[in-house]
Amino acid sequence: MHVLRVLELFLLQPLVWLGLIRCYLAARRRVRYERHHFRSAIDAHYLEVRNFFKGGLLLGLIATVISLGLGLVVSPVWAVIYETLAILSLLIVPTGLVPWTVFGLSWLAYWALNPRLMAQFNTRLQAHGVTPLGLNSGVIISGLLIFALGLAATAILLKRHETQLNSPEIRPDQRGKRIVRYRWQQLLVLPVGVLIPGDWLHATLSWWPVFQVGTQHFSVLLLPLLLGVSAQVYKQRPQLAWRRLAKGYWLVAALSVILAVVARLTTLSPQWLVGLLGGVVVLVWVILAQHRYHDQHQQFWFSDTDQGVRVIGLRPNTPADKLNLSIGDVILECNRQPVHSEAQFYAALLTSPTYVHLKVRNVQQQLIITETAIYNGAPHELGIVLFTDQED
């Protein structure tokens, strides 16, 4: 029962609901775009919202077990600073995701407040049962480990196929030719259980769980950790690009853990530790910059073509799943008829209402033959998304 009440208090925090609203708006914008440009949504279910709950709760449970097992203690003042900055970031940057920048800025702000301004609030905080924490090494080490947990959770999301939807967005290039951009933009608010010094929550809510270690009391708080990444590709297969990006996140997460262990075994000053925390935040931006650089220097795949019709999307749970197609493949023939436009492709489909036979050139420039049954009388339910025909 206490666990449910702790979760209930987490759900009452404004950052959770603001993040959910952002996910809903992003999902609605995607579905409208797909219906406008491709006649129907690639996935009409609001996958971003489902991932917000499904992925957030499962990963949050794992992160909470690890966090409480390590005994990660954070300052309640830092928690307030962090959540305030996270809320502002979602309001000020409505189309972007900057969670790790917010995380780094929260520690910079906490460092700026210590010790000049915090001394003024210590007496008031103690009067309400809050044990103030100064800028000490233990708190910053907890910050490094929380940062690592968040990066690891983001890497897991990037590698999980069921959380990814490769939705194409049509863009013109410099020559007026149509090209496709694929974007991965998933936002989560991860419930990470942390220890807060003092029994101020228990004093207000008598049922709130309190732990005692020696003479020190700790309350458990589910910290709303903002996660997410906004990445895009023009010249890479999306799934391969997301996996490569996930490897970079894993490396930075591992580095954060190593730095935390080194800091625990040495006597680095808090100022140095804040600098190290800022350094790993910068590394995340380096990983994203490397991702963009790598994409810009790849062979271009996702453009309109005069030889056949290019596959730019595949709807889940359709006959297309059995055709062994990939994004970027070019369909040269449908039911043994050459095709050069979307209209020709669907006209060829109608010649065989229950079966489709395709000749395809894949992204490795290999010719393959693939076939499968389709829905009788519903060629548009095949599940292959193509460039729509341009009007003259």
Would you give an account of this structure?
The chain has about 400 residues and is α+β, with helices and mostly antiparallel strands. It has two domains: about 1-295, no CATH class; about 310-385, Roll (Pdz3 Domain). The protein has eleven helices and ten strands. The strands form two sheets. Strands 5, 6, 7, 8, 9 and 10 form a six-stranded antiparallel beta sheet that branches. It has a four-stranded antiparallel beta sheet with strand order 1-2-4-3, sandwiched between helices. The mean pLDDT is about 85. It comes from Lactiplantibacillus nangangensis. This is PDZ domain-containing protein. Pfam families: PDZ_2 (PF13180).
Taken as a percent bin, the fraction of beta residues is 15-25%
Shape field: elongated
What does the largest sheet look like?
6 strands, antiparallel
Total domain modules: 2
How much helix is in the residues?
40-55%
Short description:
The chain is an alpha+beta fold and 392 residues long.
Topology:
Elements: H1 2-11, H2 14-38, H3 47-70, H4 76-92, H5 99-113, H6 118-127, H7 137-159, E1 168-172, E2 178-197, H8 200-204, E3 210-213, E4 216-233, H9 238-265, H10 270-296, E5 309-314, E6 330-334, E7 337-338, H11 342-349, E8 355-361, E9 367-373, E10 384-386
Antiparallel strand pairs: 1-2, 2-4, 3-4, 5-6, 5-10, 6-7, 6-8, 8-9
Pfam families: PDZ_2
Transmembrane segments: 6-25, 57-81, 87-113, 133-158, 207-227, 248-266, 272-289
InterPro entries: PDZ (IPR001478), PDZ_sf (IPR036034)
